Amino acid sequence: MTNTHVLHRHLHHRPPTAVSGQGVWLEDDQGRRYLDASGGAAVSCLGHGHPEVIAAMHAQIDRLAYAHTGFFTTEVAERLADHLVASGPPGTSHAYFVSGGSEAMEAALKMARQYFVETGQPQRSHFIARRQSYHGNTLGALAIGGNAWRREPFAPLLIPATHVSPCYPYREMRAGESPQDYGRRLADELEHAILERGPERVIAFVAETVGGATAGVLTPVPGYFKAVREVCDRHGVLLILDEVMCGMGRTGSLHACEQEGVVPDLIAVAKGLGGGYQPIGAVLAQGHVVEAMSTGSGFFQHGHTYLGHPVACAAALAVQQVIERDGLLARVRERGARLEALLREAFVDHPHVGDIRGRGLFWGVELVEDRATQKPFDPALKLHARVKAEALREGLMLYPMGGTVDGRYGDHVLLAPPFIVDDTELALIVERFHAALQRSIHS
Ligand code: PLP
Questions:
Q1: Could you say which of 26, 316, 318, 341 would form a disulfide bridge with 56 (CB–CB 3.0 to 4.6 Å)?
Q2: In this structure, are 269 and 363 located in the same domain?
Q3: What pLDDT does 443 receive?
Q4: Mind listing the pLDDT tens digit for each residue in 273-292?
Q5: Nearest CA residue ID for atom 1, ligand 1
Q6: Which residue, of 325, 341, 373, is where some domain finishes?
Q7: CA dihedral defined by 19, 20, 21, 26, rounded to 10 degrees?
Q8: What is the domain count for the chain?
Q9: Is the CB of 39 under 6 A from ligand 1?
Q10: pLDDT digits (tens, 9 = 90+) for 292-305
Q11: Whole-angstrom distance, CA of residue 46 vs CA of residue 276
């Protein structure tokens, strides 16, 4: 055991002590600096120490730090909801504020269930989601998610859910199949799963619009989500999109679903909403879902102590205002194109880089033992952990993960730098990443 009373993520390893952060850099108590190429876990969209966000939080703390939502609303929560509804997909009518991504997903799942209770379809009790997905670590979200290794120890506690294929062209699109045909095949698989369960029993299909940490940034093929939306509509099934990681500008549009041309019934957002300045997540609900609760029981039967926390709302409002004012979505698209070019240039002939995929400032690099056969590395090597450690030694924060292919095999590295990253920093990210990968493979 290490010298600490904090129950860290790993019980045999005490991580470095972070003491300050500025822009894309974090510093530890030894004076070592780390280039934050992953925004933690795709959180720090504005980087660290943003003066305007900090000022907004200070102002809110001085005015009012906390008021329980069973008694009060606050001006800052109202303003944040106004902002999110105005900038949300057409038909968005309300925002429900929680403290993170898992809580947002739990709330979305319960809201979807309550929608059917209110509208006279209480027999709907089943969720369909995808393999190789992640929706959070609380029991409901974990049950819906398709992350095999995270689910395994807790499997007896999880409610049953159906998992269909992810949209994973690198490994699962057939030879000779067009991306459009592949997307259609996946939508057919979803429809088949709905019919098998009994359409009258299914509450919702749940998916990350762009897959995140589990399989390393899976971008949907053209037409996939449109076909999914049609299947859901045909059977009265709701569509819940989890944009906790890929949303709030990360892929170059405020909501990733904008690029798919679909409007889900519910969207969960979190990480980039508050950019790490405060813990906050939200469910953005379409009018018909809220209307059903409003004309039914008149309330959403859910709640937590820290719903709509004023300081969290102040941080999120400031983050979102900066993104809007500074035109950062366009910057994400520009810098994203630069990052893609640098990654492709650096790894074009790399024997162990199988696939580079992503959108905006959200990129996944899948590592393979053999590029020709796509054979993954032996999981016993824990290559992903080596890459993370070597990168940290280089002064670089990457977000690698194992189990890319099926929860056991495969490794990838996720990059999600702050939206304010500049070209010099992007070049340094790719240079250090390349060096860390070489040492991980050859050590
Ligand atoms: N959903 C997705 C897509 C995520 O990536 C995450 C976290 O990584 C979550 C949900 C859970 O969010 P949190 O860790 O804030 O509870």
A1: 318
A2: no
A3: 79
A4: 999 999 999 999 999 999 99
A5: 135
A6: 325
A7: -40
A8: 2
A9: no
A10: 999 999 999 999 99
A11: 9
The best mutation among 214, 242, 245, 278 to test binding of ligand 1, ranked by most ligand atoms within 8 Å of the C-beta, falls on: 245
Indicate whether 62 and 200 sit together in one domain: yes
Q: What percent of the chain has pLDDT over 70?
A: 100
Is the domain of 377 the same as that of 414? yes
Supply the pTM of this predicted model. 0.98
Q: How far is the CA of 326 from the centre of ligand 1 (A)?
A: 26
Q: Is the CB of 276 under 6 A from ligand 1?
A: no
**Ligand 1 centre distance from Cα of residue 137 (Å):** 8
Pocket test for ligand 1, best of 244, 266, 267, 401 (most atoms within 8 A of CB): 244
CA of 442 to the centre of ligand 1 (A): 33
Report the alpha-carbon distance of residue 108 to residue 116 in Å, rounded: 13
* CA–CA separation, 134 and 145 (whole Å): 5
Confidence of residue 258 (pLDDT cuts 50, 70, 90): very high
Residue 37 structural domain = 18-49+327-442
Has residue 2 been placed in a domain?
no
Cα torsion 366, 399, 53, 325 to 10°: value is -10
Q: How far is the CA of 178 from the centre of ligand 1 (A)?
A: 31
The verdict on 177 and 91 lying in the same domain is yes
* Ramachandran bin of 14, using left for φ above 0, alpha for ψ from -120 to 50, beta for the remaining angles: beta
From the CA of 30, how far away is ligand 1's center (Å)? 30
Nearest CA to ligand 1 atom 13: 101
Q: What's the average model confidence in pLDDT over 355-378?
A: 98
